[in-house]
Amino acid sequence: MAVLYGLTVCFASSPAMAQGIPLIRDTEVENLLKDYSRPIFKAAGLGSHISMRIVRHESFNAFVIDGLNVFMNTGTILTAKTPNEVIGVIAHETGHITGGHLAALRSRIARDQTKALLLMVLGIGLMVGGAAAGGDSAREMSGVGTGVAMGGQDVLIRSLLSERRSQESAADQAALKYLAATRQSGRGMLETFERFAQQEYVSATHQDPFVRSHPVASDRIARLRDLVAASPYANEKDPPTLQLRHDMARAKISGYLERPGTVSNRYPASDNSLPARYARAISRNCSGRCDSSIAEVDALIRERADNPYFWELKGNLQYWSGKHRESIPQLRKALQLAGDESSLIQAQLAQAMLATEDKGMLDEAIGLLRRSIATDKGHGPSHLSLATAYYRKGMLPQADLAAAQGHFAEGNVKRAQDFAKRAISKLPAGSPGWLQADDIVKYKQPS
Fold this sequence. Notes:
Helices cover 69% and strands 4% of the residues. The chain is mostly helical. It folds into three domains: 19-238, Metalloproteases ("zincins"), catalytic domain (Zincin-like, 2-Layer Sandwich), CATH 3.30.2010.10; 286-339, Serine Threonine Protein Phosphatase 5, Tetratricopeptide repeat; 343-447, Alpha Horseshoe (Serine Threonine Protein Phosphatase 5, Tetratricopeptide repeat). The protein has a five-stranded mixed sheet with strand order 1-2-3-5-4. The protein is globular.
């Protein structure tokens, strides 16, 4: 689990966000998904407020739970061989957002739960009445009650599934509209659904979650084939540069999250491609072989010195091996190449500075963390690192507030409120920091 240790790694864990969904953070993969999704969201009229979230899970799945986020499993990226497959999935989920399907489903379930409750009460009432009557008539009455309860729920379930199928079809059509508007093929989406159509014949326990939440009927596939073939962009291919970025992201996910043996099978030593060498260098992750890994990364840097993520990886390898001060120049280079808006790399660089315990670096680390948080407020580890820096500077009220914000972002509301109360007692009443702490103290978790 060393690769998920706080901010010391490229993949920073953030399990508390999104109602306990195990999210991971990585600049390279996030930027790729942003580039995949941005044209789709624009075509759908959603603007820039929708975020792509990466879920750490090996299964193929993508889903939405609100109108602000699209969640995608790491297994989806690993499974998809082309960018177009992932883009097609994003387009489909965007169709669910623009169609208001989640709100409609919640409303429907709320209504149907009430109906189901009434049917259950009616059924139980008939069964109780039958039991009181006794004899054969009692058994008959009990049977009627059970039939009403079970039959009523069956009708509700069938009705709900019918509505879900309608929503899936609408999301397909919306997705193809967005793909055509961005001059992209729908074949990737079609191939994804064709692949998962086969799983509908498999036991549900062996199905990917995507299959269970996105049922694929044969008539739906047939319609999708016709619509894809009719598009003027049906034969458009992904640009080679985008395909390479996709392959690099898959290699990174494999290197960090799959077992070394699995990585070796996926990227054997005979494979000298850039993605394969990247995956193998990451997979070693300093388990006693940091020098070997760093040598492999140096070879990658010599070949692609303008790749910020190679520099980031080298800095992380040095950090993991305890060479905190040596990691700083590599992370600086990564930040320079990636751009100052790369909030995660800013936070990594600040973490490396804090790890040196050099007081002369505190001000720069604080500046980096503030800029990181300004563009990524929900990243708990950045707030917690800022709290550490403030404590070392003797800025105790600011440290308590940053700690409160960090724990709140990570979902630990009680601990966040404890720190927020401490901050309130020290900050000027009515000041911006005091108000932020007060909001945390007054926060009540939804039922």
